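## retry 2 of 3
previous attempt timed out at serialization; input unchanged, resubmitting
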Amino acid sequence: MTDGNQDNFRLRLAAHWVQAGGVIAYPTEAVFGLGCDPSDPLAVSRLLAIKQRPVNKGLILVAADWSQLQPWLQPLPPRLQQRLQDSWPGPVTWLVPAAKDCPWWLTGDHATLAVRVSNHPLTHNLCKKAGSALVSTSANISSQAPARSVLQVQLRFATRIDYLLPGPLGGYTRPTTIRDLVTGRTVRP
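## retry succeeded, writing output
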């Protein structure tokens, strides 16, 4: 099997686990992430338990394109849509007003949902193969340092996740910037 075929097989396997309600780990722009299908409350609940993260904090969704995020968000005026388009795909996560029917297990105590269209090749292609946005939260136990290597993910989560998609990180040293779309305020530099 060539590297390209092996990469494609791994992407298909990761997407299969997401679609089957599993929790996976995968490389993102700066750290490994834990992910699952955001529409699956059992998968999200399991991810939160693995991470020991309270549901009220909310989660980030990552996508291959804007269309994968639209069902979770309120319609936006053109100027706010342009603000998103000017920064994506890329390492900026935006807090966007959540749709009225957006599940509480994604927003937590917030009226917004954190979303990003990734330019990381594996993350982008994983979302495409899965056919949906993914939950994207750093691969760590809450308040501990995030995993930055396959080995760190294996040591922390090997028996608690369903699949680990290996691959390089995106070259950033810090997690993505988080900004509020309506106010423009930077929440996390």
